[in-house]
Amino acid sequence: MAEITNLRTAFTVRPHDEQIGFENSVSRYYRHAHVLLPLLEAKHAEVASFWPVSADMPIVNSHIEHVNLRALTDERNHLSDSVRIYAAMAAEGFLNLYGVLRLGQEVFDSEFERLGLIPKATLLLLVCDGLKLSKKDPMLLALDQVAQSRNALVHPKSREFANYSELKPKAHSRTPQTARDAVKNMDKFFTEFLLAVPDAKHVVPTIKSAC
Predict the structure, then answer these.
(1) 38: domain range?
(2) Would you say residue 2 lies in a domain?
(3) Contacts of 184 (CB under 8 A, 6+ apart)
(4) Which of 65-79, 91-105, 126-140 has the lowest mean pLDDT?
């Protein structure tokens, strides 16, 4: 019996206001997403002003016939991808930070760190704050959209088509709308988290705190 008892230890969730030193980049990622979005908007307008065909159609042989425009488009796409990635990094980084602060590094790393974003958020709020979230909770819906936008970039898929007339923009590649949506959903996630857990206001990033 003593051997079994030694394998079990009591555990208490830390209070929100416990003074703990921590290192994270959540505010930086959050700030980058917001700062890069207007730069993307400006670059997209510049690309659109030179686009020689309908705005929803690709350019054939752009690397040969429209070299300068191709370079501008690459810059625009780089900004768009960066906004979407930073939005996801801010959301995921925050969940990791919140878990470490409330549960401690060892428990979080062993029990939560490898979970997907939705299961991680759901379980963290259940364990740390006694909140059981529905799958339709606006916090989770916004977080899921951020995750999907990120996954479309880091888990890219290929599409086969017979000719260029069949090539239409994918839902997750509409620029700059997908980046706008990523920032909007990121902000929605943080807003809803703060509404659900107001005591976490000192660690939830905002435009003011991220500056």
Answers:
(1) 25-51+63-155+169-204
(2) no
(3) none
(4) 65-79
Give CA–CA dist 142/64, Å, rounded: 41
Q: In this structure, is the dihedral angle defined by the CA atoms of residues 91, 95, 100 and 101, taken in order, positive or negative? A: positive
DSSP at 132: -
Number of structural domains, the chain?
1
User: What percent of the chain is predicted at pLDDT more than 70?
Assistant: 81
The fraction of the chain above a pLDDT of 90, given in percent, is 63
Does residue 78 sit within a domain?
A: yes
User: Quick check: is 5 in a domain?
Assistant: no
Is residue 56 a part of any domain in this protein? no
**Can you tell me the mean pLDDT for 15-29?**
86
d(CA 85, CA 192): 20
- Cα separation, 31 vs 26, in Å, equals 9
pLDDT of residue 162: 67
